């Protein structure tokens, strides 16, 4: 957006300077100091042709080259300084061309041509600096443009980190005192998952949207939905590639639970916070012997094994539940495994959830009768 504003200003300046020079009475004054029609026509043609030619050339050169923005005021000043120096160095070249080819124009027309050349050169140098921030360090030694961020580096959330949900608890505990960025393309991907025809994916997507809404309403968590359109990010295909480009652009850290994405991001030089690695470091595991309720979704790889999932996507392997697909069961945890790729819980079948509920209701219904019998015995005594 900033670059197109600068281009619009350039076109307005070109048209204004051209109009002022063409409507000036000095355009008709010849070399003898007297106004004449041939001098006016020659000066008019020279100014129009040279101005429009240079302006069109540098504008097309700028638009057709790759667009990489550098929104730094220092870049504009450096480009302007270099442009003025180059314009001053090229001014004698205009006089030499006029003398060599015997072009009959007045000094006023030559001056106007030099002005147009200076404007075009300054525009071109500023545009080059704005689009080639990484190469400026080679042009000016020990000078490098870098984006300055205030406070802590932001955390960029991907879809897996939002669906996982543990990032909300970590931020609530003030472990991460940094703003959370959710790019627009991540939110779109989350919406697509929530609208999926697969029930499992649809539940994960809706869970992610609920967690994101929960974090936004929490005053202790700073969540920002970033709608900025960056050409470098938009030109890249794939959400993972866009995430890495966006994280590098905002000088942030990528938060994810995707093992492969974290490895690729590390190769690309992007700082990654893997929630699974953090959980493994904190030794957050399920203790053996704990009871859990889970719905068996599909059979496991081994005989008599059934597979279920928690709301955050954690896979649970249940022994003796292969023939209980589609039912909710109560399991006893035997062990758990935490890796960078995720967490797995192993358990064995204990009972069905419906049977447990019925057993609890029967136990509660017998308590009043037993209590009444005890009271009557006390009264007899």
Q: Which SSEs are present, and which pair or pack?
A:
Elements: H1 2-22, H2 37-64, H3 73-100, H4 107-131, H5 136-139, E1 155-157, H6 159-164, H7 166-172, E2 180-183, H8 184-194, H9 199-217, E3 223-226, H10 231-234, H11 239-249, E4 253-256, H12 259-267, E5 272-274, H13 275-282, E6 291-299, E7 305-309, E8 315-319, E9 328-339, E10 342-352, H14 353-380
Helix pairs in contact: 1-2, 1-4, 2-4, 3-4, 8-9
What would you note in describing this structure?
By secondary structure, the chain is of the alpha/beta class. It has helices at residues 2-22, 37-64, 73-100, 107-131, 136-139, 159-164, 166-172, 184-194, 199-217, 231-234, 239-249, 259-267, 275-282, 353-380; strands spanning 155-157, 180-183, 223-226, 253-256, 272-274, 291-299, 305-309, 315-319, 328-339, 342-352. The protein folds into 3 domains: 2-139, no CATH class; 155-282, 5'-nuclease (Rossmann fold, 3-Layer(aba) Sandwich); 285-381, OB fold (Dihydrolipoamide Acetyltransferase, E2P) (Beta Barrel), CATH 2.40.50.140. Helix 2 (37-64) packs parallel to helix 4. The protein is rod-shaped and about 110 Å long. Mean pLDDT is 77; it is low at 67-72, 137-149 and 356-381.
What would a concise description of this structure say?
This protein is α/β, with parallel strands linked by helices and 381 residues long. It is 55% helix and 16% strand.
């Amino acid at each position: 957006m900033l670059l197109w504003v600068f281009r619009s200003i350039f076109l307005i300046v070109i048209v204004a300077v051209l109009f002022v020079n063409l409507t000036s009475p000095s355009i008709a004054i010849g070399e003898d100091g007297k106004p004449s029609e041939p001098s006016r026509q020659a000066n008019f043609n020279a100014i129009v042709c040279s101005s429009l030619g240079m302006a069109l050339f540098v504008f097309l050169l700028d638009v057709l080259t790759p667009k990489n923005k550098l929104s730094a005021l220092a870049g504009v000043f450096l480009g302007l300084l270099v442009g003025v120096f180059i314009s001053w160095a090229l001014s004698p070249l205009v006089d030499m061309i006029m003398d060599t080819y015997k072009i009959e124009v007045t000094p006023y027309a030559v001056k106007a041509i030099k002005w147009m050349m200076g404007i075009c050169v300054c525009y071109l140098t500023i545009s080059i600096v704005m689009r080639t921030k990484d190469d400026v360090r080679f042009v000016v030694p020990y000078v490098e443009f870098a984006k300055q961020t205030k406070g802590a580096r932001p955390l960029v959330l991907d879809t897996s980190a939002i669906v996982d949900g543990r990032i909300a608890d970590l931020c609530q505990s003030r472990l991460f005192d940094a703003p959370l960025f959710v790019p627009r393309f991540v939110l779109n991907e989350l919406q697509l998952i929530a609208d999926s025809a697969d029930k499992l994916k649809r539940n994960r997507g809706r869970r992610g949207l609920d967690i994101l809404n929960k974090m936004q309403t929490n005053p202790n968590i700073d969540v920002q939905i970033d709608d900025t359109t960056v050409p470098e990010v938009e030109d890249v295909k794939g959400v993972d590639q866009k995430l890495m480009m966006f994280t590098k652009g905002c000088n942030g850290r990528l938060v994810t639970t995707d093992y492969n994405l974290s490895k690729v991001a590390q190769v690309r030089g992007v700082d990654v916070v893997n929630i699974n690695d953090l959980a493994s470091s904190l030794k957050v595991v399920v203790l053996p012997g704990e009871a859990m309720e889970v719905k068996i979704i599909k059979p496991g790889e081994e005989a008599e094994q059934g597979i279920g999932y928690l709301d955050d996507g954690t896979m649970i392997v249940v022994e003796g539940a292969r023939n209980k697909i589609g039912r909710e069961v109560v399991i006893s945890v035997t062990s758990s495994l935490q890796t960078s790729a995720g967490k797995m819980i192993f358990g064995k079948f204990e009972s069905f959830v419906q049977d447990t509920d019925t057993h609890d209701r029967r136990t509660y219904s017998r308590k009043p009768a037993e209590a009444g019998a005890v009271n009557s015995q006390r009264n007899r005594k």
